[in-house]
Amino acid sequence: MHKVQILPSLLSANFANLEHDIRLVEKAGIEMLHLDIMDGHFVPNITIGPVVIESIRKMTKLKLQSHLMIENADQYIDAFVRAGSDTIIIHYEAFEDTIPTLEAMRKKGISVGIALKPKTEVSQITDILNVLDMVLIMSVEPGFGGQSFIPESIKKIKELALLLKKYNRQIPIGVDGGINGTTIKSVVDAGAHHLIAGNAVFKGDIVENIKNLKHVVNL
Ligand code: DX5
Ligand code: ZN
Q1: Which tens digits make up the pLDDT trace of 147-187?
Q2: Is 5-216 CATH 3.30.2010.10?
């Protein structure tokens, strides 16, 4: 069974003082950070790229999970690996065929994941389960932090848990978007392991926020 854990999404942190916010995340006992990479094409927003990840890599031992919301992601995998990503997640919808990129990523020795937008059915990834180390269910339309959790995501998490069981793939399920003190328990009950949270972690007292979220799901 995979460990249930909170992954703070750096998108909602103070980008003028990332080190300060990351130290507080470490203090709260977090093991992995979630980094949202956006290019203004796959999603209508622009965030950070490999140079920022490289600097983060130098100042923390936390595991770094890079969520690529970009077009032509296959051309940038090397750069995100070199920058220090431990896991790279690509979007199912960004490729005609994800397998060559997923296999190339695996060869680099990193963990590989696939993210599904809210309208993408989990059954669509049946054929690629064997090349995945994790699956990320988007519980908001990718692009921005601070959106409301889409309730239908619960059904998708349960469907994915069943699909993984059927094919005997014991990999973690991540959920990304609108996770807070009210929604977190339902996603854990549905079978999620990686709980990505931006606003609910970084707005206000970071250590206290993480402590409260952990408390709701008995971590
Ligand atoms: C949205 C991003 C999320 C986002 C989550 O495209 O993938 O990681 O930062 O933010 P909250 O938790 O504020 O919904
Ligand atoms: Zn994300």
Answers
A1: 999 999 999 999 999 999 999 999 999 999 999 999 999 99
A2: no
Q: Tell which residue, 52, 108, 99, 53, has the closest CA to residue 78.
A: 108
pLDDT > 90? residue 46 = yes
CA 195 – CA 192 distance, rounded (Å): 7
Identity (one letter) of the amino acid at 116?
L
**What is the share, in percent, of the chain residues with pLDDT greater than 70?**
100
The runs of H, that is alpha helices, within 6-133 are 18-27, 50-59, 77-82, 99-107
- Gap between the Cα atoms of 61 and 112, Å rounded: 19
Q: Is the CB of 176 under 6 A from ligand 1?
A: yes
Relative to the CA of 180, which ligand 1 atom is closest?
12
Q: Please tell me if the CB atom of residue 146 comes closer than 6 angstroms to any atom of ligand 1.
A: yes
Q: Is the pLDDT of residue 6 over 90?
A: yes
Q: Examine the pLDDT at 1 and tell me if it is beyond 90.
A: no
> How many residues in total does the chain contain?
219
Which ranges constitute the DSSP H helices of the chain?
Answer: 18-27, 50-59, 77-82, 99-107, 153-166, 184-190, 199-202, 206-216
User: Which ligand minimizes its atom distance to the CA of 144?
Assistant: 1
